[in-house]
Amino acid sequence: MKIAFFSTKPYDKIWFEPMGKEYGFEIKFYEVPFREETVYLAKNFDAVCVFVNDYVTAAMIDMLYEMKVKAILLRSAGFNHVDIKAAEDKILVLRVPSYSPEAVAEFAMGMLLTVNRYIHKAYNRTRDFNMSLHGLMGVDLYHKTVGIIGTGKIGQAMIRICNGFGMQVLAYDPYPNSKLDVEYVELKDLFIKSDVISLHCPLTSGTKHIINKNTIEMMKEGVYLVNTSRGSLIDTDALIDGLVQGKFGGVGLDVYEEEEGIFYEDKSNEIMQDENLARLMTFPNVLITSHMGFFTKEAMQAIAKETLENAYALENGLPLVNRTEIR
Ligand code: NAD
């Protein structure tokens, strides 16, 4: 099988290159993202492999179909960046639904601990021998209420971690999991009662801007918000308004609405054109990271293994267990 691999970073090759050889696959690693103007690079390949900030529109699916490309291999769990409906009957979409939910949940807790206790600021201060504690006071998480939105694999890992911290856990999911020992509440109640809110639902038309002006108004003063799921779950303008009004104790964002083209790239020598991102950087209680919740050795290895197993199943007519279809 010949696979055209897009948005390649050096760390992708560490596992994909040797594992690909073991499977006997021919992988061409392109650094460029998957875009309308780069689709042509997939000519003569059996599959394309894309990441979270690549997008696959209906028009691009038609182009792939014409080129007889059989599959889109997503090396991610999320699939909001692919027009799944347009792909139906034309091209298979295979993803990696689970690689290490703990990697993302541990990172979400790391973000919460960092913004709450100002570890990001303390790190810089002490390196400058500024040992003052002024402005660095946080709150205990013990006995605080955390609201988990989305109780899938990552949400469940986050619930385990929060239980370990002695927090009271509330959850909202339109498909509650009766096997979980967690108190499900209505979304509104979660917003009203939580001291910490952590987002673990996928981005869909129903969840876009689930955090907006109205829902922010419902939240407690001093609430902590962590988003390791997808940027567009939050209406950034409403978030900035809330931050300006002092609504939030802290905000951790591993994802951002307009991250495409910015995240994963070194933009340190450029003038930042995204005014909302620049504004978010000015708040002392906001921590932004570059969509890296997944980034552990275990997760990267599992992503490579599962992605290539998806390709192997396709090549050998085995059941396609990770096929992504419309629910
Ligand atoms: P999952 O499919 O196991 O769970 C998602 C859960 O969200 C499901 O239980 C589903 O019922 C629920 N859900 C659906 N609609 C909802 C709604 N309107 N409100 C609340 N919950 C809703 O997915 P997962 O593996 O737990 O991943 C969750 C998300 O995390 C992914 O969709 C992806 O966007 C994101 N993610 C981020 C990173 C990262 O590096 N930051 C890595 C992997 C995944």
Question: What does the largest sheet look like?
Answer: 7 strands, parallel
Give the ligands present: nicotinamide-adenine-dinucleotide
Distance between the termini: 29 Å
For CATH, the homologous superfamily of the largest domain is named as: NAD(P)-binding Rossmann-like Domain
* H/E topology pattern: EHEEHEHEHHEHEEHEHEHEHEH
Count of separate DSSP helical elements: 11
Shape summary: globular
Cα-based radius of gyration, to the nearest Å? 21 Å
Order of strands side by side in the largest beta sheet?
A: 8-7-6-9-10-11-12
Work out the count of structural domains: 2
Mean pLDDT: 97
β-strand amount: 5-15%
* Poorly predicted sequence stretches spanning 5 or more consecutive residues: none
Based on the structure given, which CATH architecture of the largest domain is correct?
Answer: 3-Layer(aba) Sandwich
Output the CATH class name of the largest domain. Alpha Beta
Structural category is alpha/beta
Give the total of beta strands: 12
Helix percent band: 25-40%
